[in-house]
Write a structure and sequence with these properties.
Elements (H helix, E strand, L loop, with lengths): L2 E2 L5 H5 L1 H12 L3 E2 L3 E4 L5 E5 L3 H12 L11 E6 L4 E4 L2 E3 L6 H12 L3 E6 L11 E5 L3 H13 L3 E4 L6 E3 L9 H4 L6 E3 L3 H6 L7 E8 L3 H11 L4 E6 L11 E2 L1 E5 L4 E3 L3 E2 H15 L1
Helix pairs in contact: 4-9
This protein binds cytidine-5'-triphosphate.
Cytidine-5'-triphosphate binds next to helix 7 and strand 13.
Amino acid sequence: PVFVAPAMDLDMFRHPSTQGNLDILRSYGNHIIEPAEGELASHLVGKGRMEEPERIVEILETFFAQDSEKPLLGKKALVTAGPTYEKLDPVRFIGNYSSGRMGYCVAERLAELGASVTLVSGPTSLEPAVGGIDLIRVESAVEMLEACRAPFLDADITVLSAAVADYRPMEQAETKMKRETKGDFDLRLTANPDIAATLGATKRSGQRMIGFALETDRGEEEAMRKMKAKQLDAIVLNSLSDKGAGFGGTTNKVTIFDSQGRATSYPLKSKKEVAKDIVDYIIGLG
Ligand code: CTP
């Protein structure tokens, strides 16, 4: 097996030629250890820092770990991640600030521990950093639900971390809307399907489903309500009032509730570390 841990300036990393070459390496079965984000030698800030050596060693150790150290070997997992884009016309959409990072980290951790993972992702700039992940890219909530249906049937573990848009435009213009001809207008929205609730309604016993709740107030109450409504086994609450938690950033601070309402709180950590906690928690659910 060959692992590549690229490090370079952010423009160079983002360049289509670099991305294309990384895809070629992946297609040969090589493993890409994605660079981390932060300040670069050029003083620009972004993606391009070589992943921390400790983390590289950890990835290699997990890869070469004996099967006995991979508790999810033989298990199937489904993860949703990222935002959804709801089209207004060919060039505009309604979306949200989700980066998808939390969901990708969870998918990667599940794969590291031996699960075969299907990751259904809304539009993001991310690539899974470990092998064993089948990535399905979608755009809208409706597409995301359709992509989840088949993998959900035999998923032992489902983690719903996508920030699904609750509404989509009732009509999508076939051609670009023009300000001159359109003038002021009202936008009519229609509700999107609730992916978690739709899948949850057909859940078999033994299937584990975990969702997320991102709340600005009454966090615990709302998290418990959503867990029940969507028939989840546990729910991960990120509170937007905590600095460093939630959308966009690289860190998160979560509390996980089980169906009895028992809370487990974790300190502020990197999303990779939070993903480990979440996956350990899921394994603990049995
Ligand atoms: N979710 C989903 N499909 C939707 C909306 C939400 O699968 N259409 C999932 C999310 O992935 C998350 C959980 O449900 O795991 C809670 O999402 P959230 O947006 O907090 O909940 P909503 O039910 O949309 O409630 P709110 O009115 O607070 O947006």
